[in-house]
């Protein structure tokens, strides 16, 4: 893909789509600014090369209406602290006021447009909205990997009206993610967890021919165990996925990929803080209990396997890590990965959140900023926001 480095941006108005969809409380306090920090390389590059930088993002899901709690003001202020220069935060994303503000920009200036999803045209990919955005700029840079699975006006629509290239975060995300799918150093293990099998099945199917090993934990282990005839108590099971899991297990065997399920588990009557938790072997889950985490024997077995690997992709926590007595599995796996001399790629969403909270993000090769986007990418889908980016070969 062509990137911002392939363009002469000096003196140009550059519209940069970023994913500043950060967790923010009702009072506007940003709980995790990882996604803002992740865009700094592109933003600094553009400033250093005398571009006029117009940033745009969505925040939350206001569905085409103004929501005072979802204004980008707090995000702009945090960005300003991080880049140590003024960021002009506009109260609109299109219209005469925005046109005026942009016309007054000097080289190296930074402007942040208002939440794109205040406009129905954003999610509808309305060409009128896309054109209004495009008219503000000379070049479109997409750095919003986390939003690239959405065929929205600012993600795909803009490409019809402006030359468009990848930002540096987008470039890094594509490189790291496709590295897993194309030529991973082996042994290669995929660690899969999280509550829902449904969300991970696409990745499993796509990655199976490439991996040597799949380690299954988290709530989704219940469906796998049940498929092997194990009684899982009151753990939620996705019965409609069981046949598909059977097929995948057979395929794994044909391909020579081992699939390891937990041999012991932390179980509890409910997934609440203070719930009575105990460790049982996988074959002995009490009828009134559900799976809350992987157990110590499983952690030891998974650790032993991971220590031999040269590439590890991790998607989905090993248990309900938000609750201390169910967080051991996720914490231990994160610590093991942090210490490995291997390529370690963490899928976005709750796995990234866990690794970041543990302060271990900097010790992984890559922590994706995309939740849904990284799931779809690893499932082998072509993301609409990536599909529209110019290829190096087609523009000279
Ligand atoms: C995300 O948080 O995964 C992205 O910002 C996309 O947000 P969305 O799921 O509301 O489209």
UniProtKB/TrEMBL annotation:
Pfam families: PGK (PF00162). The lineage of its organism: Archaea, Methanobacteriati, Methanobacteriota, Stenosarchaea group, Methanomicrobia. Monomer. It is an enzyme of class 2 (transferase). It catalyses: (2R)-3-phosphoglycerate + ATP = (2R)-3-phospho-glyceroyl phosphate + ADP. It is found in: Cytoplasm. GO terms for cellular component: cytosol. It comes from Methanosphaerula palustris (strain ATCC BAA-1556 / DSM 19958 / E1-9c). Pathway: Carbohydrate degradation; glycolysis; pyruvate from D-glyceraldehyde 3-phosphate: step 2/5. HAMAP family: Phosphoglyc_kinase. (2R)-3-phosphoglycerate binds at residues 35, 117, 150. This is Phosphoglycerate kinase. Transmembrane segments: none annotated. PANTHER family: PHOSPHOGLYCERATE KINASE, PHOSPHOGLYCERATE KINASE 1, CHLOROPLASTIC-RELATED.
């Amino acid at each position: 893909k062509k990137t911002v480095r392939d363009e002469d941006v000096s003196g140009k108005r550059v519209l940069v789509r970023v994913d500043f969809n950060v967790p923010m409380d009702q009072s506007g306090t940003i709980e995790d600014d990882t996604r803002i920090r992740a865009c700094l390389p592109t933003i600094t590059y553009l400033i250093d090369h005398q571009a006029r930088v117009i940033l745009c993002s969505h925040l939350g899901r206001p569905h085409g209406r103004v929501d005072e709690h979802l204004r980008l003001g707090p995000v702009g202020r945090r960005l300003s602290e991080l880049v140590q220069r003024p960021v002009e935060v506009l109260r609109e994303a299109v219209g005469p006021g925005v046109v005026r503000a942009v016309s007054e920009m000097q080289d190296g200036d930074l402007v942040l447009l208002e939440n794109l999803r205040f406009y129905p045209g954003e999610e509808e990919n309305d060409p009128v909205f896309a054109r209004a955005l495009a008219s503000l700029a000379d070049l479109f840079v997409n750095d919003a990997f986390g939003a690239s699975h959405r065929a929205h006006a600012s993600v795909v629509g803009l490409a019809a009206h402006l030359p468009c290239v990848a930002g540096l975060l987008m470039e890094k995300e594509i490189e790291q993610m496709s590295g897993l799918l194309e030529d991973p150093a082996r042994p290669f293990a995929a660690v899969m967890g999280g509550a829902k099998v449904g969300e991970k099945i696409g990745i499993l199917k796509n990655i199976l021919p490439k991996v040597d090993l799949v380690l299954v934990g988290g709530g989704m282990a219940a469906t796998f165990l049940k498929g092997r005839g194990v009684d899982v108590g009151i753990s939620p099971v996705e019965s409609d996925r069981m046949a598909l899991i059977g097929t995948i297990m057979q395929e794994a065997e044909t391909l020579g990929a081992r699939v390891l399920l937990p041999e012991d588990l932390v179980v509890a009557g409910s997934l609440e803080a203070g719930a009575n938790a105990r460790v049982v072997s996988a074959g002995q889950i009490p009828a009134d209990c559900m799976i809350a985490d992987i157990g110590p024997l499983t952690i030891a077995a998974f650790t032993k396997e991971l220590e031999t690997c040269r590439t590890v992709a991790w998607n989905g926590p090993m248990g309900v890590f938000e609750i201390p007595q169910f967080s051991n599995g996720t914490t231990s796996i994160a610590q093991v990965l942090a210490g490995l001399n291997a390529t370690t790629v963490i899928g976005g969403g709750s796995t990234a959140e866990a690794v970041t909270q543990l302060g271990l993000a900097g010790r992984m090769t890559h922590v994706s900023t995309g939740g849904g986007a990284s799931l779809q990418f690893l499932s082998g889908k072509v993301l609409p926001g990536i599909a529209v980016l110019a290829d190096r070969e087609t523009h000279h």
